[in-house]
Amino acid sequence: MNRFSWFNVTSLTLGFAFLYLPMLILVIYSFNESKLVTVWAGFSTRWYGELFRNEEFLDAAWITLQVAFYSSTIATVLGTMAAYALVRGGRFRGRTLFSGMVYAPLVMPEVITGLSLLLLFIGLGMATGMLTVTLAHTTFSMAYVSVVVSSRLSTFDRSLEEAALDLGASPFEAFRLVTLPIIAPAVISGWLLAFTLSLDDLVIASFTTGPGATTLPIKVFSAVRLGVSPEINALSTILIAIVTVGVVTASLATKRQAIRQAREEKMGERGVA
């Protein structure tokens, strides 16, 4: 059976064109000389210079990075603890309620989450700003971290922990020296996922932000409502480049790790033989 039939090739071509052709057009027009994003007036990098001189965009980008870093770090700690409790805690009173509360943000509409958090902050008398945005992002991104870490813990060989306990390690030492290094890739993946979700969030941030804490997605959305500027194209191109470099780097690192593990397994088999 021919796996690369004309139907498959055509479907893949149309699918990739639908996904990536708009991005390609955006990148091309980010080097446009004209202020009109639909009229080509020659190659130029002026809008990149204008972007880096735009203090509003730079301030919004800095705030976004701070919020993403703090929220993803807190969410990783709390999400890992929640995953450990769900997978290793066994049967305890309120487990169903606890798991439902942990995973609820995954299916909850962002509008409901943002509005409920806004009402909570108002009820507590907290002024909306960077702190409230960070807490809001921690709330919904923690669920994603918990899912990623739970899937790794569920397939974890507990005999390794039991061996460490038999050798005199305390439960905390066994977790720190044995469990955590093994599940570290899942923890790092959860942190990266939470960081990405925080960078991309618009709805929840729009409810919980305040003066002086405008994130980059909110700034871009507000600017686009007045008309697409070539600076937006330049900013989007930079973000696409960063994501591309990150994906390629992660793919190469994963490939090298797989090759290294295959070599170690082969050397181990030769040693046994």
What can you see in these coordinates?
The chain has 273 residues and is mainly α. It has 2 domains: 174 residues, MetI-like fold; 46 residues. It has 11 helices and no strands. Helix 6 crosses helix 8. The chain is globular, with a radius of gyration of 24 Å. It starts with 5 loop residues before the first helix and ends with a helix. The relative contact order is 0.13. The model has no long low-confidence stretch (mean pLDDT 84).
Keywords:
273 residues, mainly alpha, MetI-like fold, 2 domains, 11 helices
Total helices: the number is 11
What does the largest sheet look like?
none
Oligomer: single chain
**SSE ordering:** HHHHHHHHHHH
Structural class: mainly alpha
- What is the fold named in CATH at topology level of the largest domain? MetI-like fold
Cα radius of gyration in angstroms: 24 Å
Any low-confidence stretches, pLDDT <50, length ≥5?
A: none
Under the CATH scheme, the architecture of the largest domain is: Orthogonal Bundle
Number of domains: 2
Helix content: over 70%
Could you give the count of β-strands?
A: 0
- Average pLDDT score: 84
Tell me the fraction of residues in β-strands, as a range: under 5%
Tell me briefly what this model is.
The chain has 273 residues and is mostly helical.
Task: Produce the secondary structure layout.
Blueprint (H helix, E strand, L loop, with lengths): L5 H24 L16 H7 L2 H34 L6 H13 L2 H15 L5 H25 L4 H8 L4 H30 L2 H6 L7 H10 L4 H43 L1
Helix pairs in contact: 1-11, 2-11, 3-6, 3-8, 3-10, 4-6, 6-8, 7-8
